[in-house]
Write a structure and sequence with these properties.
Layout lengths: L7 H22 E10 L3 E5 L8 E6 L3 E8 L2 E6 L4 E5 L3 E3 H13 L8 E4 L3 E4 L8 E5 L4 E11 L13 H5 L7 E9 L4 E5 L3 E3 L3 H4 L6 E13 L2 E11 L9 E10 L4 E22 L5 E10 L5 E9 L2 E5 L12
Antiparallel strand pairs: 1-4, 1-7, 2-3, 4-5, 5-6, 8-11, 8-14, 9-10, 11-12, 12-13, 15-16, 16-17, 17-18, 18-19, 19-20, 20-21
Length: 336
């Protein structure tokens, strides 16, 4: 009978254990998948391999649909609609759930009245919900023109109050974080894409001649009521709604101001102003008032102390702004 070599079995055992370990770790590192994803970066390169040195095999752009073939730690192997395959950082991809939310924003807000035009200050993400931590699919570039549709407020991450603890010398001296709310705008870009933008990332496209009358307040939205002719020029007349110069207010605006053009003095003048607790959107229209003819009108929504929102209509028979009372409505306090 042949005696087994004393070291053969242990050596085989080590090899088997090492093989199993490598197989398991390899499975944990790479996972073969087949799913749909979308590019959330402005643009990104496709690599031929996951390595410090690689060859660029393709380029994908924002919103482009790709098929995920494999995942490897921070990277994913994708195939484009053109059939190009390559590796991309996973942080540049979002799933179909984010894409569906972005498309839903487009569909559900396609008929919303525009509350003003604005220009982006920086490259800006279009989030699917208001909030810095919310997912995004699309990005708009610096200087892009967007339409503002709705306002919302969201908590700034990292500003929630610290939980209550027993006071000590250290906690007394330490400043606790305060809850900070930020203003957000639902915006539509020139490609029809819709998403939430941090309000401080956009500037209203309002003429300086009107913006200078903000008097330290924040102009929230603006609207062109009509145009008047001054010589060979047509000058727009504006409605603006304003609020306090800070984020997180519980109302959208608390002031209304109308600016008309004085043809004799060739300048803007305040034709009407009123303070109230307003809720967007503001809507514009044209209406026939018989002897006065067709006049521009605007409707604002006012919230009372109980939270009830009612509408108020106004007409502009330049330079006079008057309230248009609903049937059975009695005139209230007169405003300048």
């Amino acid at each position: 009978m042949t005696t087994p070599h004393p070291f053969r079995l242990p050596r085989l055992g080590v090899i088997c254990v090492l093989g199993i370990t490598l197989f398991v770790s390899g499975c944990g590192r790479r996972r073969s998948v087949h799913e749909t994803a979308y590019i959330s970066a402005t643009q990104a390169n496709l690599r031929d391999r996951v390595a410090a040195v690689y060859t660029k095999v393709g380029l994908v752009k924002n919103g482009e649909r790709v098929e995920v073939l494999d995942r490897d730690r921070r990277f994913a192997k994708v195939r484009t609609a053109a059939g190009v395959e390559g590796w991309i950082e996973q942080r540049n991809l979002v799933g179909k759930d984010v894409y569906d939310k972005a498309q839903n924003l487009v569909q559900s807000n396609q008929n919303d009245p525009v509350q003003g035009q604005a220009t982006t200050r920086n490259d800006t993400n279009l989030h699917v919900e208001p909030g810095r931590d919310a997912d995004h699919l699309y990005q708009v570039a610096t200087g892009a023109k967007v339409q503002l549709l709705k306002r919302a407020i969201a908590e700034r991450p990292g500003t929630a109050p610290a939980p209550a603890t027993r006071p000590t010398a250290q906690t007394d001296e330490r400043k606790e974080a305060k809850l900070v709310m930020e203003d957000w705008w639902l915006a539509r870009d020139d490609q029809g894409r819709v998403g939430w933008i941090l309000s401080r990332m956009v500037d209203l496209d309002l003429p300086l001649e009107i913006a200078q009358y903000a008097e330290g307040q924040r102009i929230v939205a603006y609207f062109v009521l009509d145009e008047v002719r001054d010589g060979d020029k047509k000058i727009p007349q504006y409605l603006t709604v304003l609020t306090e110069p800070k984020d997180g207010m519980p109302f959208d605006f608390n002031q209304v101001r109308v600016f008309t053009w004085n043809v004799k003095r060739h300048r803007y003048e305040t034709a009407y102003r009123e303070r109230l607790k307003g809720v967007l959107p503001v809507t514009m229209a044209q209406e026939n008032f018989e002897k006065e003819g067709m006049l521009p009108t605007f409707t604002i929504r006012v919230e009372d102390d109980s939270g009830t929102v009612t509408e108020r209509k106004y007409k502009l028979n330049s330079p006079i702004v008057r309230r248009v009372l609903a049937p059975g409505e009695e005139p209230g306090k007169k405003h300048r």
